[in-house]
Fold these 2 entries.
Entry 1:
Amino acid sequence: MSLDSFLLFFEALGVIAFALSGIIEAARKQFDLVGVVMIGAIAAFGGGTLRDVLLDRRPFFWVEQEAWVWALIVAGLSLPFFFRARHIEFTEKAMMVPDAFGLGIFAAGGTHIALVTGQSPMIAVLMGVITAVVGGILRDVMVNEVPRAFHDHQPYAVIAFAGGWLVVLLSYLQTPEYVDVLVAAIAMVAVRLVAVRFGLKLSPWRLF
Amino acid sequence: MSLDSFLLFFEALGVIAFALSGIIEAARKQFDLVGVVMIGAIAAFGGGTLRDVLLDRRPFFWVEQEAWVWALIVAGLSLPFFFRARHIEFTEKAMMVPDAFGLGIFAAGGTHIALVTGQSPMIAVLMGVITAVVGGILRDVMVNEVPRAFHDHQPYAVIAFAGGWLVVLLSYLQTPEYVDVLVAAIAMVAVRLVAVRFGLKLSPWRLF
Amino acid sequence: MSLDSFLLFFEALGVIAFALSGIIEAARKQFDLVGVVMIGAIAAFGGGTLRDVLLDRRPFFWVEQEAWVWALIVAGLSLPFFFRARHIEFTEKAMMVPDAFGLGIFAAGGTHIALVTGQSPMIAVLMGVITAVVGGILRDVMVNEVPRAFHDHQPYAVIAFAGGWLVVLLSYLQTPEYVDVLVAAIAMVAVRLVAVRFGLKLSPWRLF
């Protein structure tokens, strides 16, 4: 598999993961079908779009490959039947798993894209953080909750930040590019899932 | 009337409609004069500005024709006297009427603009939806409510979506451009007003 | 001191002031360290970034001088110790002081930047208002509150608006550029602090 098609496939996974997190979140809030699809779209495309606006990259990936948009609409229309058939509950926990995958994939991919376009390491890492967290922040703002990324006291953005530096480090070590991205993403997803599973907490700032 | 001046006049109607919806919403929340003008501006210019950022069109229409900005300030200053003199109440229903007009006008106009700049039909329709719903979403987020577009279970974004495809269809049929836009806009406003009047509902997603 | 280095130093003060306002706000809400740093960053960089997106200026100042990002992280890590050692309380009032400085500095600086890039006076003044208020609006939206700029009935955006016109006026009078900016900023900070101190209120719109 070429690097380009690897990255495309990889970004696809992130889009799917975040779209799923948005769909679950909106369904929990009893939104209607249109609201569910829109929250899914915002969660999936929000971070990457802001990154591309900040880096002045055009056209956006979802404009270039509009298949994403069709896929999202089909998912929004078909998933309810699937979820109902399987008696899957829309719990906050159910949302956490795709969210963790989206976090790792988008942070690694976003950092990589920014490095390739010639940004300095610090800015590239920040772009990775933005790619990874902005979709989720917008998703939470839209359902009128304080964004989890700021508030739930579990490591989230900090994982994207550390993982981004891992991408930078691996790229200095001249590892093949898809290895950089893949290793960092897997590490981030693993750390996030462990943190959620065992309830690891960051202390509130004033007690820090 | 030339096509360009028609489109300008048409966009003007949409700006006025959404500005009015924002002004009513902010007045209902007891905002001060400045807050009312700012929410009006966000509702009126938010959707078109995001569309232009996404399509990379500069300068924005409100930068090119700053008369809009002056008009909005004058409206914010003078409307209170008008409303008080007429004993018009700021009810949620009062907000729905200009909102419906803004929806139809911006969805049709936004789709048209994106088609003209060479976007594919699906992306053009999405740009129409974004133009039409983002102003209202920002308006509702700013007053700390869950955006009605996601949550009130009445068809809103889906009308913009279907109406956008009507613009696309009419443009394939080689109708004069202002007919495309006008017919689609009128259809959308009518459907929205009927939906609000008779309380048509979309079912929540999980019961879908 | 040259004009450029004056403006850089001046913008630095605004970034620090707004970052501090965001840090205090997030600490009041018991956010964790990462949330505090992120809210600080959003408050500090949000307004200037939107202004630059609207004016199509690239790269953003925080991309060009990434020292800002490092400084913010260090501040987020070290300030808790400082605040605890001094027994400084995170009250809403404590937040108001840096917020007032950020308001004056960013409104004057943003108006100046837009004038230099050739915008008309009205658009330049609006860009100053956007630079000054958007960071604070995003900060408040992120902690799930109605933005103070709209709602607290104290003059805020209107000070940025009037102060922007003062910059325009002074620039017509051919005063040296840093005098324009400095005089207008000092005037705005003073008016805002007086308004907060003595509880000056704008009346709600419907009683206007």
Note: Chain C touches chain A through 29 residues (CB under 8 Å).
Entry 2:
Amino acid sequence: MGAEGFRFDLIKGRARGPRLGVLHTAHGDVETPVFMPVGTQATIKATSPEQAWHAGARLILANTYHLYLKPGHEVVSSLGGLHEFMGWSGPILTDSGGFQVFSLSSLRKIEEQGVTFRSHIDGSTHFISPEKSIEIQHSLGADIIMCFDECPPYPVTLEQARSSRARSARWAERCLAYHAGRVACRSGFNGEPSGTGEAGSGKRQALFGIVQGSVYEAERTASAREIAALDFDGCAIGGLSVGEPKEMMLSALEWSIDPLPERKPRYLMGVGTPEDIIQAVARGTDMFDSVLPTRIARHGAALTNRGRLLLKNAEFGDDGSPIEEGCDCYACREFSRGYIRHLFKAKEPLALTLATIHNLRFMANFMARLRDAIAADEFSGFAENFRGTYARRTGRKE
Amino acid sequence: MGAEGFRFDLIKGRARGPRLGVLHTAHGDVETPVFMPVGTQATIKATSPEQAWHAGARLILANTYHLYLKPGHEVVSSLGGLHEFMGWSGPILTDSGGFQVFSLSSLRKIEEQGVTFRSHIDGSTHFISPEKSIEIQHSLGADIIMCFDECPPYPVTLEQARSSRARSARWAERCLAYHAGRVACRSGFNGEPSGTGEAGSGKRQALFGIVQGSVYEAERTASAREIAALDFDGCAIGGLSVGEPKEMMLSALEWSIDPLPERKPRYLMGVGTPEDIIQAVARGTDMFDSVLPTRIARHGAALTNRGRLLLKNAEFGDDGSPIEEGCDCYACREFSRGYIRHLFKAKEPLALTLATIHNLRFMANFMARLRDAIAADEFSGFAENFRGTYARRTGRKE
């Protein structure tokens, strides 16, 4: 099928190992490997779109589950779709809501048709099916949307992993069929999308399938083959970084990536830390998302090349140096550790903003250097250097 | 005496009635009448200096009491003084700490020498005298600093008002003597300020006296004469907007301004609303400060020319229009009422930031239009029009 306006070009690398690529979207191009900051409720917490953009955020993620519940996807749609709503003119990816339905809501009833659950906000009852998730994501109008899948926790039995993987495969086909049908239907309507303008048009939205299978090789392989066989615009690896040991995650990632087509983007959902990203890039992953950099910022932890810096520490009280010497972010250009510590201790909102800006910038710069290293055939050296320096401070300070 | 680098030019108007002027400071010129946003803890809550500047803030106020307690004026001084510390390159005014000592702290003991009080943060005991207040303000290094005065609440008896006014007068002389002494001493030191660089130099700091006297005409007049007789760089009117009826405030303001020198700036402390500013400008006031625009923003109230708009109201849920049509602030240029309502309902920090930016911009634009009206000899027409339009919505929505 293929979404209009969406294309992935693999610039360097093959099916495995570090790769360079470009995601072309209707809202601009994005170089991969890319890290996506998370704007759960249609805002990257504690920053304006302007600040996040200047900090280097390009492709960002918003959560379908949260926006469906509040303010409601119809409201977002009536206000022009997600880009217009949140004032973000760059590309956006929405998840399917599946992960949150399985992790945040209560009283879930999972059936073949879909999932009935209670809102974590007000306890109201809702039903989301694969079709409904795609419909909501059409309303939101992100550039990249995701299949609705069943996300098993860790650990599950092989039996559970298999049954869940099989259901996710059936749901993936239903998502694709619904997406294709709606797109065809929309295209047929005077050639104009019937949605709420460009942002809401399924025509321009890329749909990614999701590999599941918990930590079992046979299930991961089977799932990846199922997803690879379908006409998705990209392939995500889901169900990882949910508590399993790091080694297991990396093995499951390898099993998941192995059967995937070389020329489609691979997206490892919910990862993560710079260390994990290096490991996953080494195994052929192109896209990442995590709340980590923005969440730890709000708790006063800054990412630096020497590890995490705990900004509330008393030692920084009269420290006139920036969070990280040489960093070009607004926080480091304009403010001292002493001032930022004061803001945290005084519970000033600007504390969260400055730490978030710094961590966004750190991730953007980190990914840019990582891409440069791949381009220069120096990825392993970069990875080794980074890990050596990064681990030292993290070890000392935490 | 006169502070180097500080000068007030009266451009239009006389001792009474609306006036236009320019405050020249080492950190830039400011047109008067001016409204000063408040950055209590060395930050205008929920905004970056960049955002506040773009929203039109120029001369801002920081609170000596709060900064003395946290992070401590020595820390601010060691980090380069207030401008450097908070990343604000425009002019800054600090209050004396008196108002907060009298309103926030507990277990006050007021003696002729100074005030002993307990911190509202941790209960620790502190002593601030007129000299100590000036010393702290020298450390902080604002462009304009204030006398330490006794701020009686409302109501007090005539007897209390008189005794308090007399003490404030004695304290004013001590502040001036200490400031002059330190300035002379600093000037004598190789011609270089002995403080922590330019920002911390008493030489360049203007000192304002403060008129007190509660709501009693004789006391206000006596206090204003006492302040007028001393060599201050400007004259503030304190002790108002503390709960007294509006009519009383305006009378007390008139009694306070009447004896003041024509060519020094007059600053009405803690005021306030656009309506009050219009009344005070009509009576010859040049400077204002209030937490109101930024505080109500954080509670979801936006200032508009048609009164306050309560952004959390359900009616704005799918409203695609900006907070105020025609407003040139970042919030109004980029976002809808519907989105900002969503941010408030979702408790996102960006809600506070956008509402604060809008209210800062509203106040800056309001003061600019007010100055234009004075320049065009149309102040009464402007005041009448504004009040007519503003009152309608405020009446309807609250």
Note: The CA atoms of residues 82 and 210 of chain A lie 23 Å apart.
